[in-house]
Fold:
Amino acid sequence: MHDFIDLLPALACGCVLPIVIVWLAIRSEMNKTNQRTQIVLAAIEKNPNMDIEELMEKMSPKKKLLKEKLLSKLLTGNITTFLGIGFLICAIHVDLVGGMNSNDLRMLYLAGAVLLGVGIAFLVSYSKGKKMLAKEIEAEEKKLIAEANS
Structure:
């Protein structure tokens, strides 16, 4: 029974938490869609001759530019890399000083290594994406400048 109680936090974080996060994300998206539908229906009731496509275009959320997506990868990569380095430094310090359970210390090393690996993966993804999408980003910027001038 004691072993089961020790497993409860891991089960909660590994099973229940991801399910709740996915459920909340789906529910939020459904609420946004329902709100847009209600707005469009109300607009049609008030003015049946209005252009629905134009209204939907104005209501739809703006898509992120390629440059913004790449910059968010850079930010995420930097944060997770520094967190991983911080966890590893903390683990090394605790390992040298002592005073921590060996299983907990192993988990601290593992968390640091995983965060460092994920951060490096995001940074590599950013650098490769920047090289591969350079022409598309330049075309997007020219398009935005042309739209701003007109």
Summary: DSSP finds five helices and no strands in the chain.
